[in-house]
Amino acid sequence: TKLCKATLQRMLTNPLYIGVIVHNGEAYEGKFEPIVSRATFEAAQKVLKDRAKPRKSKKRHNFPFVGLLRCGECGAAITAQYAHGNGGTYRYYRCTKRLGSCSQRYLREDLLVAQLKERLQKVALCEDWEEKMLVQVDIWENEQAQSSQSFAQNLEEKMKETEVKLDRLVNAFLDGVIDKEVYLVKKDQLIKTKTDLLQKKSDFERKGNNWIEPLRDWIKTAHHAEKLASSEDFYEIKSFVEKIGTNRRLLDRK
Fold this sequence. Notes:
The chain is mostly helical. The chain is built from seven helices and seven strands; from the N terminus they run αββαββββαααααβ. The protein has helices spanning 5-12, 38-51, 109-123, 127-174, 180-207, 212-228, 234-244, and strands at residues 20-23, 26-29, 70-71, 78-85, 88-95, 107-108, 249-250. Strands 4-5-6 form a three-stranded antiparallel sheet. The chain has a two-stranded antiparallel sheet with strand order 1-2. A hairpin with a 2-residue loop joins β1 and β2 (26-29). α4 (127-174) packs antiparallel against α6 (212-228). The radius of gyration is 39 Å and the shape is elongated. The mean pLDDT is 85.
């Protein structure tokens, strides 16, 4: 009967043959004669270790823009591969064609990078302009804060005035100064005024100056685009394009 490699491996590494029993990770001396000497056993372990072939780890291909684009013709994913030519090895991106027939051709990575950097340059903001615009945003933020405070105080005063008028109206009706018909008309007007003021207050608290931070973030993002336009960190370029781009399609190598 032939022995498989796994069985031979277990036999050659089993310390039982040198009179040692291993139980729960702990070694015990056996009550029987060893079959082989410890020196022979250890020599065998060394040979097995030297001959053992390390498992090859799966090589990861360096394709930074995989997952960024989809085919503009058929909608399939864009994949990548290496190709040799003109005395060198190049990375190419192409449609997987997994959704059916597609006429789109390969695009070399350096040409793709050039196009992405050109797009980044169109939205890029230099450092001087970034600083100036951020200073202006700070000014607008302070002005908005002062204006908001004034607006809020004005609303509070009007709401208090309306409450006072309602109290006076009720007292006048109870004292018989005005009849019920006039009372109901005036009360309806004051309630409507109060409701409108409460709605304005709610809208103000909800909206506030929430346009400031998005504008500030946009300025910083545009300046980051200026840096990436001259960067060779393709993975960072990919990450940036994923954040700002929505319709990322590759059609006719563009």
